[in-house]
Specification:
- The protein is an all-alpha fold.
- About 65% of the residues lie in helices and about 0% in strands.
- The protein has a domain at about 1-25.
- The longest helix is centred in the first third of the chain and has 24 residues, at about 5-30.
């Protein structure tokens, strides 16, 4: 069941990929950025699959109705 719509999906993808890139940068420079990259995988994954598990119990949907 898709519950993540267009703008929401784009924002999640941009923020997620930004966190992953920043985490990788920190890991290379300081050795302590792996957890930021891991956190960035959550919004990236929800954007790619168009489903947010947190939206389900809250009955939220930003996807267009069919």
């Amino acid at each position: 069941m898709k519950n993540v719509g267009g703008v929401d999906r784009i924002l999640r993808l941009v923020i997620g990929l930004g966190l992953v890139a920043y985490g990788i940068f920190l890991q290379v420079t300081t050795g302590a950025g792996w957890w930021i990259a891991a956190i960035g995988l959550v919004p990236t994954g929800t954007a790619l699959f168009s489903t947010c598990p947190l939206y389900i119990p809250l009955k939220i949907s930003t996807a267009k109705k069919d």
